[in-house]
Amino acid sequence: MLTRSHSSDAAELFKSLGLPNVSIHHAFGHFDFTRSSRRILVIGPMGSGKTEYSARVWRDARIALVKSDQFARKTRTGTADRRNVFFIRSLLDADRFPDYPDDALAYRGGYEVLGSNIARIRDSFELEKVLNDHPDCGTWIIDEASFYDERIAYVISREAEQNGRVFIFPTLILNFRKDIFNPTARLLLETATDVFPLTAYCEHRDCMDDSFYTYRYYFVDKKECPALFFDPLIVVGGDRIKENPSEPNYATRCQDHHYLPGKEYTYLILKPLGLEAARGNIEPLRGELQAIRQDISTSALGTHFYERYGTQDTEAADTNLNALRVPNIAEKALLYLFIEQNLLSTDQVVGITKNLNLDTEYLSRIARDNGRGIHFS
Question: Which is more confident, 212 or 133?
Answer without folding.
Answer: 133
